[in-house]
Amino acid sequence: MNDHADLCLAADFDGVHVGQEDLTPEGVRRIVGSQRWIGVSTHHPEQLRAANKTDANYIAIGPIFQTTSKRNPDPVVGLEGIRAARALTARPLVAIGGITLENCRSVIDAGADAVAIISALLDDPRKRTEAFLRKLG
Fold first, then answer.
1. Which domains does the chain possess?
2. For the chain, N or C: smaller number of CB within 10 Å?
3. Alpha-carbon distance 103 to 95, whole Å?
4. Runs of H (alpha helix) within the chain
5. Relative orientation angle of helices 45-52 and 78-88, to the nearest 10 degrees
6. 22-35: pLDDT as tens digits
């Protein structure tokens, strides 16, 4: 569930993802308990260091590339941003922002454990998901 710990509980989802403007990971943990996953978005090393001090289960970094999914996206961090983030945390690292079938492998190769994809799946979600899974192995 994105942003809403209360709806995560109501829908009995496995976890919740929060951004920098949302409830803190500590606040989310108080709501969802210890059995659900918590992820937190970061956009630069200071935010990543702060997220790494929480009990978030994974940390997202981005946007990696230009994205059309947000009205006012944060500055692009690029593949170098993933490498820097990887050096700052041993937690699972999720890359987000502008990830396409053409660039997803380079994102994983730069140190991300996973990719979060929105726009690249919209045309034909099933077919595009299959293509991503083939590409990422």
1. 39-136 (3.20.20.70)
2. C
3. 12
4. 5-10, 25-32, 45-52, 78-88, 104-109, 125-136
5. 30
6. 999 999 999 999 99
